[in-house]
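Re: Re: ligand-bound prediction request (bumping)

Still looking for help on this. To restate: I need the protein modeled with zinc ion bound, output as structure tokens. Inputs repeated here so nobody has to scroll up.
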Amino acid sequence: MIIRGGTFGPVATNTYVVADKQGGEAIIVDPAAGGSQWVQETLSRLDATPIAVFDTHGHWDHVVENHVWADRGLPIWAPEADLEWVRAPAPFNPALFGNPPPTPGTEPARLLNEGDTIEVGALSFAITATPGHSPGCVVAYDADHGEALVGDLVFAQGIGRTDFPGSDPGAMIASLERVFAEIPGETRIYPGHGPWGVTLAEAEPYARMFF
Ligand SMILES: [Zn+2]
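Reply:
Sorry for the wait, this slipped through. Here it is.
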């Protein structure tokens, strides 16, 4: 597996390109504001064929450039429980996001739910529903390679906010406890903000300072 990350936009959102191998297939994870040129260059360097955009959840900063890739013919894979924000991206917190011009929505070709599997070439990611930060937050975990795309559930040194519209602090705690119980601690995590590549076990004590 090859994972490349870049950080873009008003709230420093991580976009990832995940490919099964050089010259293989790839997905674009959470296309943040201003990241499309970096994504294109990264795909070119990897000689990878993009097969889809995968949104870890529907918050504006993670879906704002879905339309760039949808316009180029890529399908959008997004969590069903955040569908309305994918259809109508909502920068609902002006203090964070400013007042950006309207963002075109996209219609996902695939709606993700608990128990689904994402295939990227030879890679296989299990989808776990991890509501709390948003209703539709999911974690995509590749057990074969020990890597997990965790969105805004857990960061290297913290957790996603639970004070947004649709957030649920109780569900967040349950999601975190479930992920810490079910995903091995040596798994490397790729969060929606901040550093990536730390292990889940390294992140857990920081996360537990917040709940
Ligand atoms: Zn978020």
